[in-house]
Amino acid sequence: MTLKQLQAFYWAASLGSISAAAAKLNITQSTLSKRVLELESFLSQSLFSRSAQKLVLTEVGTKIFDHAFRMIQIENEIYNTVTPSSEISGKFKAGISELTAMTWFPGYISSVYNININFEAEIYVDVAAVLLKRLTKGEIDFAILPFNSEQDKHFNAVQLSTVKFLWAASPELLPVSSRITSEQLQNFTHLTHTADSHLKRIYDQWITHNHVNSARTMTCNSLSAITACTIAKVGISLLPQTLLTPLVISKKLTAHVSEFELPIVDYYFCWNISDTRTSLPLLANLARTNADYNLNKALDIFQ
């Protein structure tokens, strides 16, 4: 019995999929399956039910699951004993939202790379629902998500920052930054995110709760495209205040509060609770000190 066999078994059981476990361990599916079969041969016991569509642990598999996890923890503890506690090392797959990618993340990842020579990252930019699904499957190691995952028992979550939203419009549609009424809102096309975005759910909840209608809607899975279309007078949109402020200063857009309270979104650094690598809380704490969604301090792509 080897540690690699126990790792293959543990991640296949945790993620419920040979393909997801193989991706997590950066090995082929055939290699992972071989290691599980070798472990079963050593124990002379079946660890998974082969008849189910999804991997299901047998009684023996359930009994050894926690022991396998403990062995992986011991491996990490041994590694951490000889590795400086402040060093971030290893290869990590990260999932981030577009707003995070446009603002503080480039500076953050630059500082991690400059300080830690044994660190590598593979970055995926997508909407929250996709990132959460990939995080759950173990396809990414951590995600920076625009909602509170703290209550989910499967994840550790460190709060990073809070982002406020305002209505945005071209000066040719609404020339002066001011309070916008429900009657005015229903006269414009609303530009919002696609259904798999957490920001779309926030928009839908706000519209429904406050009984606000719109003339038409246009959905898009890109925040920068929504912003550009708002500048181009396609319609109005709910934009992060930190993104909107420099565009108001440059007179590309006007900003508008509402007669109803506008959404506030909390961003969290989340990772799987079963991933005990000490680099992850170090990455989370560093993200907390760097998380500034002010576009002025990052990439102004609308100049």
From TrEMBL:
Presence of the UniProt keyword Disulfide bond in the record: no
Pfam family, one: HTH_1
Ranges of residues in domain HTH lysR-type: 1-58
Keywords, in A-Z order: DNA-binding, Plasmid, Transcription, Transcription regulation
Species name: Leclercia adecarboxylata
Gene Ontology molecular function, alphabetical: DNA-binding transcription factor activity; transcription cis-regulatory region binding
Protein name in the entry: LysR-family transcriptional regulator
Family: Belongs to the LysR transcriptional regulatory family.
InterPro entries according to UniProt: LysR_HTH_N (IPR000847), LysR_subst-bd (IPR005119), WH-like_DNA-bd_sf (IPR036388), WH_DNA-bd_sf (IPR036390)
